[in-house]
Design a protein that fits this description.
The chain is mainly alpha-helical.
């Protein structure tokens, strides 16, 4: 019976969207109706919260991967690369400024 209830919850509510309050309310309702015992209710709450967290982490990982892939396809510069190039340009400017000045008229 408890497995059927778990499947119904997971199917009816997006597992990643489950909050502790929602799960506790649902478990309390099932306990009040006599569908499950208090011990089963506590176990159900903990298991659903664990699954919800795993689902959120998986969704987060998949989203990050998709975003990185999309950015790579768009050929956008990453901030780290931009900052490195900016530092190199500043260093080269400083080196150029430190070079002795050449008198163009004296060369001719």
């Amino acid at each position: 019976m408890i497995d059927l209830i778990k499947k119904a919850i997971l199917t009816g509510v997006g597992i990643a969207a489950l909050t502790k309050d929602k799960v506790e309310d649902l478990a309390k309702e099932l306990i009040d109706k006599g569908k499950i015992s208090e011990q089963e209710g506590e176990k159900l709450v903990q298991e659903m919260l664990n699954r919800a967290e795993e689902s959120r982490e998986s969704l987060k990982s998949q989203t990050e991967s998709l975003v990185k892939s999309t950015i790579a396809k768009m050929h956008l510069v990453q901030i780290e690369d931009f900052e490195q190039l900016k530092a190199e340009v500043e260093q080269l400017r400083a080196e150029i400024a430190a070079l002795p000045k050449v008198d163009k008229k004296a060369k001719q």
